[in-house]
Amino acid sequence: MVKVLFVCLGNICRSPLAEALFKKAVEDRGLTDQIYCDSAATSTYEIGNRPDRRTCANAESHGLKLDHRAKQLRKSDFTDFDYIIGMDDSNFDNIHAMSHRFSGSYPSHEQVFLLRKFDPFVEVSRGIPSLPDPYYEPDEAFEEVYQIAKRSTEKLLDWIIKKHHLE
What we know:
alpha/beta
């Protein structure tokens, strides 16, 4: 089983949305017995809380229901998950710092990625942009994040299927 963990700061906006989008794509392709996903936070700010109401409303407008409670990235996640996907540079740096604090080593560059590495609208040779954090933004930002996360998680799934010879 291939395991994927999506990570953002609070685990109430971007990472639970990416988790739900990825999970739906996995289900649509009939791969639930081969691919598992979850999401987590680098901070403790929102532990136990449900996703942000605006994230939920936006997801529901696309027929997607978010059923998640925020939790923090744990030491065991670095061995339990094949891929840990950060939403922005700060999360990416925090993931690496947490790995080093937990184990004294940094995770492999083959384990930790930024989600937009898989965004077909991004020219990776120019650098990988962050998935914007919509938390302090107007409602329209949640739609932008949804669209970016949808296309990025679909391409991530394509990459995992090819890399692991699934389907």
